[in-house]
Write a structure and sequence with these properties.
Radius of gyration: 22 Å
Strand content: 15-25%
Helix content: 40-55%
Order of helices and strands: HEHEEHEHEEHEHEHEHEHEHHHEEEE
Distance between the termini: 80 Å
């Protein structure tokens, strides 16, 4: 009886240890129209640490195929079956908004990698469980508008996704543009899966704006720009940080030469001064990613996942002092610690979270860039 009891006790101890592993669920669009964004996010997971503060970390990665419905299904599975302690992702704003109810209901912290600020603002009981590792729209829009006004732009054409990403960008960008004295004289939308935007492009060109702002992400963002070039538009073309990747240039080629964008410092890391704390982290990520996947493969979208990992690396040791992994108490502690993150330097910026600001990035987290000679380069003026 004693030996059986000892064996049972040992098994229970082992089971307790296994349950104590920290589980992190990741949802990324590694297939579908947003795959150019989701693949580097998925790839980056392999670069994240397998152990933090002596605790084994298990990553469970699911593909939502660029479909918000699949994202919901995947998150439900991660929460119910795998009982994850935290979530990273998803890739698109519609998917992030679709999973908010389930994240909040389960009280599981989510480090999202989407662009739109609508997932964290305005803050409420649901969004308090969400933290965001990409620059908020207003931070990017301010830099773009400053460049526009400095270069004599007065009138604008707007072409954006007909989903929450495009709508939130129009709301944020449009409001700031109006305050700066800029007029949006053409406003068009298109779907992520559209094969042609000729009609929208022709309407924008007919309005004769000084510049065009495209609010889209990944490969689909090339489509309206290609249409504008094909139809002979000669004004400046600006994009959101949703195209902050070398794949945008690879897909667009000469069509996207001269594109203007405000985005995270990663793409222009070599041009940053050595005194900039982001430079070392950004170059470290580039070295790690390209060392595994090949020269020229790194992406800012993957860096957003990397920065989510950095925030968790800082937060997990502190949360472990309050509760054990796999428990509601640990998830709550992890959320609380993430909200107190201060001066966490990532590859894309510096994070200072507060109860009302779950992005925490400031002007250090953006630079103005242009495509020149087939690469993103820092604008000096």
């Amino acid at each position: 009886m004693l030996s059986r009891f000892s064996l049972l006790a040992a098994l229970l101890v082992l089971a307790g240890v296994a349950q104590a592993d920290i589980k992190i669920g990741v949802v990324a669009s590694s297939t579908g129209p947003t795959a150019v964004v989701g693949i580097p996010q998925k790839n980056t997971v392999a670069l994240l640490p397998n152990e933090i503060a002596g605790q084994k970390i298990e990553y469970i990665v699911l593909d939502d195929a660029s479909d918000p419905t699949n994202a919901v299904t995947g998150v439900k599975k991660l929460l119910a079956e795998h009982k994850v302690d935290a979530l990273i992702g998803p890739t698109t704003t519609p998917a992030a908004l679709a999973i908010l109810d389930f994240v909040a209901e389960s009280k599981t912290p989510l480090l999202t990698t989407v662009g739109s600020s609508s997932v964290v603002l305005p803050m409420d009981d649901k969004k308090k469980w969400v933290f965001k590792t990409t620059q908020n729209d207003d931070l990017i829009a301010e830099a773009v508008i400053a460049h526009m006004t400095a270069n004599g732009v007065k009138t604008l054409g707007f072409i954006g996704f007909n989903d929450p990403y495009g709508e939130n960008w129009f709301k944020v960008f449009g409001g700031l543009a109006e305050k700066a004295g800029l007029s949006i004289i053409a406003n068009e939308r298109f779907s992520r899966t559209d094969q042609s935007v000729t009609g929208q492009v022709l309407k924008v060109i007919a309005a004769r704006p000084d510049a065009v702002f495209i609010a889209a992400t990944g490969g689909p963002a090339v489509l309206p720009q290609a249409g504008l070039q094909e139809k002979g538009y000669k004004g400046r073309i600006y994009q959101t940080h949703g195209v902050a990747t070398n794949d945008f240039i690879r897909l667009g080629g000469k069509v996207v030469e001269g594109t203007l964008m405000a985005g995270g410092p990663l793409l222009a890391a070599d041009d940053l001064p050595n005194s900039n704390p982001i430079k070392a982290v950004a170059l470290g990520y580039i070295k790690a990613y390209e060392g595994r996947y090949g020269v020229g493969t790194m992406s800012t979208f993957g860096a957003n996942t990397w920065d989510a990992g950095l925030l968790l690396q800082k937060a997990i040791p502190l949360a472990l002092k309050k509760a054990k992994p796999g428990t509601p108490e640990f998830r709550i502690a992890l959320r609380d610690v993430l909200e107190q993150s201060k001066e966490v330097v990532g590859a894309q910026g510096v994070f200072n979270m507060t109860a009302q600001n779950h992005n925490g990035m400031d002007q250090r987290s953006r630079v103005m860039m242009t495509v020149k000679g087939g690469k993103w380069v820092l604008l000096k003026d």
